[in-house]
Amino acid sequence: MSASLLRRGLELLEAPGQGDAPPGLQRERDDPRAAGAARRRKVAQHPGRNKATVKGRVMKSAIEEYHKKKPVNHLTANLKYMLKGRFVANKAITEQVLAQNRGRKSKDQPPKKAAKKKPEGTVFTEEDFRKFEREYFGRP
């Protein structure tokens, strides 16, 4: 046990008024911490009011505190505000703004769109095939 804890314990057990020595008999200390300790001791001996009591305090309801700090969903009000306006931005400008705000990481990039394949067809018509057949094989 430290000396300060022992001293505090003895002060608590003393009868009030007995522990106070006349100011002339007290030892003076050169240590600046001693002045702070003396001040703390003085405050501990003569408390103005016990701050641990509930008297004079207003009890706060836990439910009211929860409702105060509960997050509010502003989605419907924001949607009404946004849909109320008639101005619609140009799609090219919108894409440009989105591209500027997009990060450089691969997870921030939009997925690549696959190019649409044209249906495979021949450049030659049926008439061209017949003409080729006549020329190559010699049949009419």
From TrEMBL:
Ranges of compositional bias, category Basic residues: 38-56
Pfam families: AROS (PF15684)
Recorded name of the encoding gene: Rps19bp1
Alphabetically ordered keywords of this record: Nucleus
One term under GO cellular component: nucleolus
Tree of life domain: Eukaryota
Species in which this protein is naturally found: Burhinus bistriatus
Compartment annotation: Nucleus, Nucleolus
GO molecular function: enzyme binding
Region named Disordered: 1-56, 98-122
Protein name as catalogued: Active regulator of SIRT1
Protein family per UniProt: Belongs to the AROS family.
